[in-house]
Design brief:
about 10% helix; 8-stranded mixed β-sheet; about 35% strand; 18 strands; binds manganese (II) ion; single chain; about 230 residues; 4 helices; mainly beta
Protein backbone atom coordinates (compact mmCIF):
# COMPACT_ATOMS: atom_id res chain seq x y z
CA UNK A 1 0.00 0.00 0.00
CA UNK A 2 1.40 3.35 -1.06
CA UNK A 3 2.09 6.29 1.25
CA UNK A 4 0.86 8.62 -1.47
CA UNK A 5 -2.62 9.83 -2.35
CA UNK A 6 -1.86 9.20 -6.02
CA UNK A 7 1.05 7.89 -8.07
CA UNK A 8 4.10 10.15 -7.63
CA UNK A 9 5.81 11.48 -10.78
CA UNK A 10 7.98 8.94 -12.54
CA UNK A 11 11.76 9.28 -12.24
CA UNK A 12 13.00 10.62 -15.57
CA UNK A 13 16.06 8.90 -17.00
CA UNK A 14 18.18 8.50 -20.11
CA UNK A 15 19.78 5.43 -21.61
CA UNK A 16 23.58 5.29 -21.50
CA UNK A 17 25.47 3.92 -24.48
CA UNK A 18 27.12 0.59 -23.70
CA UNK A 19 25.64 0.47 -20.21
CA UNK A 20 22.65 -1.59 -19.05
CA UNK A 21 21.73 0.85 -16.28
CA UNK A 22 20.04 4.16 -17.00
CA UNK A 23 21.08 7.69 -15.94
CA UNK A 24 18.42 9.08 -13.55
CA UNK A 25 17.66 12.78 -13.94
CA UNK A 26 17.84 15.21 -11.04
CA UNK A 27 17.58 18.70 -12.58
CA UNK A 28 17.65 20.33 -16.03
CA UNK A 29 19.77 23.50 -16.24
CA UNK A 30 20.11 25.66 -19.35
CA UNK A 31 22.71 28.33 -20.09
CA UNK A 32 21.35 31.41 -21.88
CA UNK A 33 23.32 33.24 -24.60
CA UNK A 34 26.50 31.20 -24.77
CA UNK A 35 27.46 31.62 -28.44
CA UNK A 36 28.29 35.15 -29.56
CA UNK A 37 26.53 34.94 -32.92
CA UNK A 38 23.32 33.67 -31.29
CA UNK A 39 23.40 36.36 -28.59
CA UNK A 40 23.74 38.94 -31.35
CA UNK A 41 20.92 37.48 -33.45
CA UNK A 42 18.73 37.77 -30.32
CA UNK A 43 19.77 41.42 -29.91
CA UNK A 44 22.00 40.86 -26.86
CA UNK A 45 25.73 41.30 -27.46
CA UNK A 46 27.93 39.67 -24.80
CA UNK A 47 30.98 41.16 -23.11
CA UNK A 48 32.55 38.30 -21.17
CA UNK A 49 34.83 40.73 -19.31
CA UNK A 50 31.91 42.36 -17.52
CA UNK A 51 29.18 39.68 -17.61
CA UNK A 52 28.52 36.30 -16.07
CA UNK A 53 26.48 33.50 -17.62
CA UNK A 54 22.84 33.17 -16.65
CA UNK A 55 20.58 30.16 -16.38
CA UNK A 56 17.03 28.94 -16.51
CA UNK A 57 15.61 25.56 -15.62
CA UNK A 58 12.96 23.19 -16.90
CA UNK A 59 11.05 20.64 -14.85
CA UNK A 60 12.54 17.14 -15.24
CA UNK A 61 9.15 16.01 -16.59
CA UNK A 62 9.89 18.11 -19.69
CA UNK A 63 12.60 15.61 -20.64
CA UNK A 64 11.77 13.88 -23.94
CA UNK A 65 13.82 11.15 -25.59
CA UNK A 66 15.26 11.65 -29.05
CA UNK A 67 13.10 10.12 -31.76
CA UNK A 68 9.82 11.23 -30.20
CA UNK A 69 6.90 12.87 -31.94
CA UNK A 70 5.56 15.72 -29.80
CA UNK A 71 2.48 17.89 -30.25
CA UNK A 72 2.92 21.48 -31.42
CA UNK A 73 2.54 23.21 -28.03
CA UNK A 74 -0.34 25.44 -26.96
CA UNK A 75 -0.05 29.19 -26.60
CA UNK A 76 2.53 29.94 -29.28
CA UNK A 77 2.75 30.88 -32.93
CA UNK A 78 6.56 30.83 -32.98
CA UNK A 79 7.95 27.53 -31.64
CA UNK A 80 11.74 27.44 -32.09
CA UNK A 81 14.46 24.80 -32.10
CA UNK A 82 17.78 25.34 -30.28
CA UNK A 83 20.46 22.68 -30.80
CA UNK A 84 22.73 22.23 -27.75
CA UNK A 85 25.54 20.18 -26.25
CA UNK A 86 24.39 18.67 -22.94
CA UNK A 87 26.74 17.91 -20.03
CA UNK A 88 25.73 15.06 -17.71
CA UNK A 89 26.98 15.55 -14.15
CA UNK A 90 28.07 12.35 -12.43
CA UNK A 91 29.47 13.50 -9.10
CA UNK A 92 28.16 16.06 -6.61
CA UNK A 93 29.97 19.33 -6.07
CA UNK A 94 29.61 22.86 -4.67
CA UNK A 95 31.90 25.80 -5.53
CA UNK A 96 33.87 23.65 -7.96
CA UNK A 97 37.06 25.32 -9.25
CA UNK A 98 37.27 25.28 -13.06
CA UNK A 99 40.48 23.24 -12.81
CA UNK A 100 38.55 20.43 -11.07
CA UNK A 101 35.39 20.62 -13.20
CA UNK A 102 36.28 17.55 -15.26
CA UNK A 103 35.98 15.35 -12.16
CA UNK A 104 32.22 16.01 -12.13
CA UNK A 105 31.56 15.11 -15.79
CA UNK A 106 29.96 11.71 -16.45
CA UNK A 107 29.33 12.21 -20.14
CA UNK A 108 27.60 14.20 -22.85
CA UNK A 109 24.46 14.15 -24.96
CA UNK A 110 22.94 16.09 -27.83
CA UNK A 111 19.88 18.12 -26.84
CA UNK A 112 17.13 20.39 -28.11
CA UNK A 113 15.94 23.36 -26.01
CA UNK A 114 12.55 23.84 -27.68
CA UNK A 115 11.22 27.34 -27.01
CA UNK A 116 8.03 29.34 -27.36
CA UNK A 117 10.01 32.28 -28.74
CA UNK A 118 7.08 34.69 -28.86
CA UNK A 119 6.31 34.18 -25.17
CA UNK A 120 9.98 34.28 -24.18
CA UNK A 121 10.46 37.65 -25.92
CA UNK A 122 7.33 39.15 -24.34
CA UNK A 123 8.60 38.01 -20.92
CA UNK A 124 12.04 39.42 -21.64
CA UNK A 125 10.66 42.82 -22.65
CA UNK A 126 8.38 42.97 -19.61
CA UNK A 127 11.00 41.77 -17.12
CA UNK A 128 8.96 38.66 -16.33
CA UNK A 129 10.15 35.07 -15.81
CA UNK A 130 10.81 32.94 -18.89
CA UNK A 131 8.90 29.87 -17.73
CA UNK A 132 6.05 30.06 -20.26
CA UNK A 133 8.59 30.47 -23.06
CA UNK A 134 11.05 27.85 -21.91
CA UNK A 135 9.54 25.32 -19.48
CA UNK A 136 7.33 23.88 -22.19
CA UNK A 137 6.00 20.32 -21.93
CA UNK A 138 8.15 17.92 -24.02
CA UNK A 139 10.68 20.70 -24.68
CA UNK A 140 13.89 19.26 -23.18
CA UNK A 141 14.76 16.72 -25.86
CA UNK A 142 17.86 14.60 -25.28
CA UNK A 143 19.74 11.66 -26.79
CA UNK A 144 21.23 8.76 -24.89
CA UNK A 145 24.26 9.75 -22.85
CA UNK A 146 27.71 9.06 -24.24
CA UNK A 147 29.88 8.21 -21.23
CA UNK A 148 33.05 10.32 -21.34
CA UNK A 149 34.01 10.50 -17.66
CA UNK A 150 36.46 13.25 -16.83
CA UNK A 151 36.65 14.54 -20.41
CA UNK A 152 36.21 18.22 -21.18
CA UNK A 153 34.71 18.56 -24.66
CA UNK A 154 36.22 21.64 -26.28
CA UNK A 155 36.11 20.93 -30.03
CA UNK A 156 33.12 19.26 -31.69
CA UNK A 157 30.91 20.27 -34.60
CA UNK A 158 27.29 20.95 -33.66
CA UNK A 159 24.56 21.18 -36.27
CA UNK A 160 20.82 21.01 -36.84
CA UNK A 161 18.58 20.57 -39.87
CA UNK A 162 14.84 20.93 -40.41
CA UNK A 163 13.43 18.59 -43.07
CA UNK A 164 17.00 17.95 -44.19
CA UNK A 165 17.92 21.63 -44.66
CA UNK A 166 20.80 22.78 -42.42
CA UNK A 167 19.80 25.65 -40.12
CA UNK A 168 22.50 25.67 -37.43
CA UNK A 169 26.17 24.77 -37.82
CA UNK A 170 28.89 25.72 -35.39
CA UNK A 171 31.46 24.18 -33.04
CA UNK A 172 31.44 23.90 -29.27
CA UNK A 173 34.85 25.61 -29.31
CA UNK A 174 32.77 28.80 -29.78
CA UNK A 175 31.08 28.54 -26.38
CA UNK A 176 31.58 31.91 -24.65
CA UNK A 177 31.73 30.20 -21.26
CA UNK A 178 33.29 26.78 -21.79
CA UNK A 179 32.42 23.57 -19.97
CA UNK A 180 34.85 24.17 -17.11
CA UNK A 181 33.67 27.75 -16.61
CA UNK A 182 29.99 26.77 -16.65
CA UNK A 183 30.48 24.09 -14.01
CA UNK A 184 32.49 26.50 -11.86
CA UNK A 185 29.92 29.29 -12.17
CA UNK A 186 26.74 27.21 -11.81
CA UNK A 187 28.15 25.40 -8.76
CA UNK A 188 28.47 28.75 -6.99
CA UNK A 189 24.65 28.88 -6.94
CA UNK A 190 23.68 25.21 -6.67
CA UNK A 191 25.02 22.08 -5.05
CA UNK A 192 25.41 20.15 -8.29
CA UNK A 193 24.22 16.55 -8.03
CA UNK A 194 24.77 13.39 -9.99
CA UNK A 195 21.89 13.34 -12.46
CA UNK A 196 21.94 17.06 -13.24
CA UNK A 197 21.98 17.90 -16.96
CA UNK A 198 23.39 21.20 -18.20
CA UNK A 199 22.27 22.33 -21.67
CA UNK A 200 25.14 24.60 -22.66
CA UNK A 201 23.46 27.04 -25.05
CA UNK A 202 22.69 27.19 -28.75
CA UNK A 203 24.61 28.59 -31.71
CA UNK A 204 23.13 30.99 -34.25
CA UNK A 205 20.46 30.04 -36.76
CA UNK A 206 17.50 29.39 -34.47
CA UNK A 207 14.12 29.47 -36.11
CA UNK A 208 10.53 28.21 -36.13
CA UNK A 209 9.05 24.81 -36.84
CA UNK A 210 5.50 23.83 -37.72
CA UNK A 211 3.45 20.66 -37.42
CA UNK A 212 4.88 17.96 -39.65
CA UNK A 213 8.47 19.22 -39.50
CA UNK A 214 11.30 16.81 -38.76
CA UNK A 215 14.29 18.09 -36.80
CA UNK A 216 17.61 16.26 -36.91
CA UNK A 217 20.84 17.32 -35.29
CA UNK A 218 24.19 16.10 -34.13
CA UNK A 219 27.10 16.82 -31.88
CA UNK A 220 30.25 15.28 -33.32
CA UNK A 221 31.39 12.28 -31.29
CA UNK A 222 28.44 12.57 -28.91
CA UNK A 223 25.15 11.77 -30.58
CA UNK A 224 22.46 12.33 -33.17
CA UNK A 225 19.06 13.67 -32.21
CA UNK A 226 15.68 13.62 -33.93
CA UNK A 227 12.30 15.15 -33.17
CA UNK A 228 9.05 15.23 -35.15
CA UNK A 229 6.43 17.93 -34.60
CA UNK A 230 2.92 16.58 -34.52
CA UNK A 231 -0.31 18.55 -34.84
CA UNK A 232 -1.42 20.89 -32.06
CA UNK A 233 -3.61 19.28 -29.40
MN1 LIG B 1 18.90 27.29 -25.22
Amino acid sequence: MSDYLFDPPAIQSLAVRGEAKRFPIHRLFFVGRNYLAHAEEMGNPIDKATMRPFYFTKTPQALTPSGATVPYPPGTKNFHYEMELVVAIGKPGFRIPAANAHEHIYGYAAGLDMTRRDLQLVAREQGRPWDLGKDVEHSAVCTDIMPMPGQVLSDADISLAVNGVTKQHSNVSKLIWDIREIIEDLSEFYHLQAGDLIYTGTPEGVGPVVAGDQITGQVQGVGEIALTLGPAE
